[in-house]
Hints:
The chain starts with 8 loop residues before the first helix and ends with a helix. The protein has one domain: Growth Hormone, Chain: A, CATH 1.20.1250.20. The protein is an all-alpha fold. Helix 2 packs antiparallel against helix 7, helix 5 runs parallel beside helix 10 and helix 6 packs antiparallel against helix 7. The chain has 13 helices and no strands.
Amino acid sequence: MIWFKVYDMFWIAALSLVQGxxxxxxxxxxxxLMVNLIDDKEDLPNxxxxxxxxFNAARLIGPALAGVIxxxxxxxxxxxxxxxxxxxxxxxxxxxxxxxxxxKKSAENIWIDLxxxxxxxxxxxxxxxxxxxxxxxxxxxxPFTTLLPVFxxxxxxxxxxxxxxxxxxxxxGAFFGxxxxxxxxxxxxxxxxxxxxxxxxxxxxxxxxxxxxLILALICTGLAALGLMAQxxxxxxxxQTHADDLMRGRTLSYYIMAYQGVLPIGSLLMGYLxxxxxxxxxxxxxxxxxxxxxxxxxxxxxxRNQINFSPLKAR
Length: 315
């Protein structure tokens, strides 16, 4: 469509829908497959973080490189390079040699399988709280990223290059967040990391909303991305290391629904509210909502631990 200059919003939306459907299978399979790529399961948190660091290193380098190509060769060449890059991905997957544990294929209806995943999470409050926190953040906090172009163009009177700086700042912060996660030793308190990273994310988003200068806004974007990276990686790692082998795929399906499934709804909601009340007001609200979400998560964890370790429970 880009190559032939067919700019039709309906077909762009349709292709986005197809891409979302593909990602629903792709992301779930890749996340579930990761545990089979690691010989020592204690290395799983570091592996997840290293995987995220590669993704965010690309986010750091990609916008700068794409900006040069876009301004010199055009957007059609950018899409062509993106298309060709998938050949390397497919080649790597063909070369993988995995020893996969075969599980008996379920003969039940997919909705029954989905309900089993729900029942499993309901019986595992520690996993459920992580998924719920991810859903709440995706709905009310993480959509600040979709408003970054507004900061670049309207608030700081910039252009595509300015937006590239915001993307690079986000990639820079997320990269350092991934490096931090990759250095964690086995047995770290992931719940604490989830709470601390959530606080950093929320405060940075509020600071971004009231930033008087572009430099300060870029710094706040980087810090917010660092917190977001640490939070999502911690939740992902906790779910992968605490879910039963037979239920890991279903658990991660709920995680992906809570993250990538809820995020478009949150982005639409926050975009509409930004149209009504202004971008900076809405982004500040997102940061405050993030603090409330962390407070609710912290209260739930404390209350759950008190129940688990009460004298009555001990008897």
